[in-house]
Amino acid sequence: MSSTFTPADMPQRRPADIGPITEGHETRIRSFAFFAYRGGRDEQLAPAELGQRAWHDTLAALADLAEPEDWTGTLPSDRTLPILDSFLRYTHQRLVMEDKIAVSENSEYAALNTGLLTRYAEEIFGLFRRNTHEGGQPWFFLRWATESDRDLLREFEEPPQMAEYVNSASDLVYDWRRELKLAYGHILGDNIDRFPPDLAVQPRRAQQALDSAINWALRKARRNYKVIVPQWYPLLGESGAQFLMPLDLTGDGRADLALVVSAIGDQAYRGDTVLTLAMAYTNARLIARPDSDWLVPTAAPVRTDEEMFRELS
Question: Does residue 81 lie within any of the structural domains?
Answer without folding.
Answer: yes
